[in-house]
Amino acid sequence: MSKRGRINLYLHKIPHKSIRYVRDLWNTLVNMRWRWLMFTVTLVNVSAYFLFAELFLFDAWISGDFDGEPDHKKCINGVHNFTSFFMLGIETITTTGYGYFHPTENCHLVWIVLTCSTVVTIFIDGAFISVVYVKISRPTYKITFSLFSKRAVVSTKQVLQMYIS
Questions:
Q1: In the chain, what are the domains?
Q2: Which one, 29, 85, 126, 144, has the greatest CB density within 10 A?
Q3: How far apart are CA 146 and CA 149, in angstroms?
């Protein structure tokens, strides 16, 4: 055990160790350090932005927004490259409201993408809010793991000194 109260236990040669973390994702997220949890939240959100930017791009491509026909009613207004689709994905997921980039009623696939985006957003927010709540409300250590005595301390250094002298 370290001076800060952390248990120095390193697990080596455990078969399928990374699969066990994925199987028990809840405990993995709750026991994760704060910096790695924030990194995971950021990574999941940015991945969702990219996913829905790709879906909006695919929808615009399917509906013929890039054909250049003058009479064509666009499915998504204001978009012209991947950056604008990425901004549309951010605006949709964070529900900040639509500005220059916005979907229109001219195609039906965009409404399916918007609905899926809403469901994914609710899932991501709910999962990570639950993890943060549990992480804040639980005690930082468990007393049952280690017992301290006022009279004896055992360590490998003292045992080695006994054999040397």
A1: 17-164 (1.10.287.70)
A2: 85
A3: 10
